[in-house]
Recover the amino acids of this structure.
């Protein structure tokens, strides 16, 4: 019978903008001297929110948990496109934004709901012959990317003050919200890029109980132990209710 210790489980981190998901994994491994630490789904450096870390024997659950659906909120800026499709990139085009109401914006967003084939961006962690695409992009190299089937459960804006709209999206794993922002801008004829992004949910896990990254680094190992979701609890499954 397999046994588990108190550091075999999951830790919910509220990731700040700046560090990569890998940076956070490395910091937790180093700070608490835990040999095995992984995460369930990369967040871009500029993105914030729920990052699920798996510790010890729980790392073997990564493939299962990464497959869970995700919920995000964020903002999209219309009228500008960038080479990375988000605010971190270089401006590639600037176009006038046509007047539109929140209702009209949501009508356009609603057309994204359902199954779609989405082509991953060049600036991504997907690997080509073992090399992350973002490293090729830095060299000005663009390669063919195979479209992926994704499903959008919800894509809706709660506010719009030209040229920025605030939205919420519920989607399957592997969805690039940056690409959705870009494609919506193209559809509206103004161009757009993802300004901010925050992950709120991943499967049954939510941002509410997550601990801020800087705060977790100030915990003792005993205090950290109290924040870990035990391995056996991670095997239970529930679904996010969709609006």
């Amino acid at each position: 019978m397999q046994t588990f210790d108190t550091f075999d489980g999951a830790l919910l981190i509220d990731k700040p903008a700046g560090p990569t998901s890998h940076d956070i994994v490395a910091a937790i491994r180093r700070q608490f001297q835990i040999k095995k630490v992984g995460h369930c789904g990369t967040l871009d450096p500029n993105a914030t929110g729920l990052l699920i870390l798996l510790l010890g024997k729980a790392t073997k659950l990564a493939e299962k948990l990464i497959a869970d659906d995700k919920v995000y909120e964020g903002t999209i800026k219309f009228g500008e496109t960038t080479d990375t499709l988000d605010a971190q990139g270089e401006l590639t085009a600037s176009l006038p934004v046509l007047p539109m109401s929140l209702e009209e914006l949501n009508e356009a967003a609603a057309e994204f709901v359902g199954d779609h084939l989405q082509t991953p961006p060049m600036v991504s962690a997907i690997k080509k012959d073992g090399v992350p695409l973002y490293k090729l992009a830095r060299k000005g190299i663009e390669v063919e990317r195979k479209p992926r089937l994704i499903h959008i459960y919800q894509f809706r804006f709660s506010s719009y003050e030209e040229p920025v709209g605030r939205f919420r999206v519920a989607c399957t794993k592997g969805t690039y919200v940056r690409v959705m922002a870009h494609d919506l801008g193209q559809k509206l004829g103004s161009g757009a890029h993802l300004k901010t992004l925050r992950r709120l949910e991943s499967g049954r896990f939510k941002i509410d109980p997550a601990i801020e990254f800087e705060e977790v680094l100030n915990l003792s190992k005993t205090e950290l132990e109290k924040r870990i979701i035990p391995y056996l609890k991670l095997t239970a499954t529930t679904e996010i209710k969709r609006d």
Summary: Confidence is low (pLDDT under 50) at residues 238-243. The two ends are 42 Å apart (CA to CA). DSSP finds seven helices and 15 strands in the chain. The CA atoms of residues 3 and 150 lie 37 Å apart.
